[in-house]
Fold:
Amino acid sequence: MRDEGLSYAAAGVDIEAYERVLERIKPLIAATHGKEVAVGVGPFAGLYALPGGGHLAASADGVGTKIKVAIAAGSHRGIGKDIVNHCVNDIATAGARPLFFLDYFATGKLDPEAFAQVVDGMTEACREAGCALLGGETAEMPGMYALGDYDLAGFIVGLVDPGAHPDPSAIRAGDAIVGLPSSGLHTNGYSLVRKVFEDVPLTKVFPELGRPLGEELLEPHRSYLEPLGKMRWKAAAHITGGGILGNLPRCLPEGLGARLQRKSWTEPPIFRLVRKRGRISDDEMLGTFNMGLGMIVVVDGKDVPPEARVIGEVVRHAGPDRVVVS
Structure:
């Protein structure tokens, strides 16, 4: 057991440093935007206005170092589902239905079996989302990647019908916050998770997990396209890199925050195991992982579905922390 607890930054990922750099480059990005750009850098998806009132929603993302786990396990199909579902969820927060998806697969030397598994997973997820896998790029770059390594990025475009884009300005203090359960770690925090389990074989079965560690770590990222389509909601936050603390504020207007009740949702065993083995603080866990909530939705109290899991409420924000979990 370690004397000091682990952190995401100590594992090599400094989210605060990235955010500082992002603030520096935002003016450069904004300078490329014409009047058609309705929403630029910051939200989970960019919006480009179309004639007639609709919008195109677009997003790009990667799977991160979860790929290293897939390579070690020799199991790549879930990675294909991960990248599609991650991108689908990002544009779903804008009220978009997916139109088409493109991928970028880069490696030092192409492994046909691994590549075929990734594409198989992507095509299944695209079919489930009603989305065309329109094209992509497969790049072999000897010397750029170690033998057996690869990287994967995804790019998605969806359509927001006129009047379908959620309006965060309609959010009020007292609105309900609903949590949609995750399937586990999804696709973020793996640099820290790999550090926690660096000496543990992927075949090890922890009693609290009830299955091999590798299977738990490779559980695919869940899509929330269908449940979001069945709810009336004002805003949604896809809980990925930055965890609950970093992502929930992205969908809230200035002056408003969130108060969440920790006991209102079930935390999957993998998070408790990671916390215990890594001696990781609660704030670090909440600021790194989804903690069992893959999507968090703001809903008017009268529109909360009977089966929904209400995890907190919107509050007026007057302190340094916009999200308080108690």
